[in-house]
Amino acid sequence: MYEIGRKQILTVEKKVDFGVFLRDPEEKFSVLLPGSQVPEGCAAGDRLEVFLYKDSEDRPIATRKEPKLQLHEVGWLTAVQITKIGAFLDWGLDKDLLLPFHEQPRKRIQKGQECLVAVYIDKSGRLCATMNVYPYLRTDSPYHTGDQVEGTVYETSSNFGTFVAVDDIYSALIPRKELVRELEIGSRIRARVLSVKPDGKLDLSIREKAYLQIGEDAEFLLAELEKNGGRLPFTDKSDPEIIRSSLHMSKNEFKRAAGHLMKEGAIRMTPEGIERI
User: What is the C-alpha to C-alpha distance for residues 105 and 111, in angstroms, rounded to an integer?
Assistant: First the structure.
């Protein structure tokens, strides 16, 4: 059967002046492959691998050009035109791919901007792009706990954390408790795999393991003390959210770093906070 949005092999039914008609045995109608796409010497009965999409009149049409993305695939495409209904993206075919405004979270895409999208079929049966890539990300990554990975931030949630497309194809989340700074949508990050969930999705952290991170956190605390006259108004009783927003570390990480510096005799803890010795 014909599969809009995917490559498939069809049989040449007949040649005409403007191309050839291709047929799948299970279908009652043929699909046109325009003359500019027909290979030299092509004849009835030949089998051709083509990609199927819809033309400007919503009719199925074939091409031998290679699309940058097929149906349900995720990847980066560039906006080449902005219209009243959305952005049109270059995906390697004669007809650009529409990214409707309602499929663009937060800020609207500008001409020339690259965006991470997935290809889907809308209610009218046309191929479109969406920046809501979550349903299309894979859960069969080769990664394990402790591995270092790279990915793209594609969504944030005050309840769950920051959603990341690892290698731009695998589903992952930085849980809220692991966020020590805000990450912008579209930014590239490097992270460590905290765990692989039973459904194959990844939990990530942008911080090192505690025993590796403690030295870096201690140096950061010393630098902050220097910038603030040798004092910081944080103790082990401070609100965790205040510590997170001010120092970009969790309360536990602050306590570990402060404890490390106290053991070294670099700081002392007072009822009002920590201060440099």
Answer: 16
Q: Position of tokens 């089998």?
A: 47
| Integer Rg of the chain from CA | 27
CATH code for 137-205?
Answer: 2.40.50.140
User: At which residue do the structure tokens 């990915």 appear?
Assistant: 151
Q: Are 13 and 44 in contact (CB under 8 A)?
A: yes
Each residue's pLDDT tens digit, 160-213: 889 999 999 999 999 988 776 678 888 898 898 999 999 999 999 887 655 455
pTM listed for this prediction:
0.71
H or E segment to which residue 85 belongs:
none
- What pLDDT is stored for residue 100 in this prediction? 96
Phi, psi dihedral angles at 154 (to 5 degrees): -120, -10
Residue 245 tokens read as 């927003």
Say how far apart CA 238 and CA 220 lie, in whole Å: 18
Sign of the CA dihedral 180, 182, 186, 188?
Answer: negative
CB contact at 8 A, 53 and 5: yes
User: What are 39's strand-pairing partners?
Assistant: none
The residue extents of the domains of the chain are 7-63, 74-134, 137-205, 210-276
Q: Which residues pair with 268 in a beta bridge?
A: 275
CATH top-level class of 74-134: mainly beta
Q: Which residue positions in the chain have pLDDT lower than 70?
A: 1, 180-181, 208-215
CATH number of this structure's domain 210-276: 1.10.10.10
Fold exhibited by the domain 7-63: OB fold (Dihydrolipoamide Acetyltransferase, E2P) (2.40.50)
Domains 7-63 and 137-205 belong to one CATH topology: yes
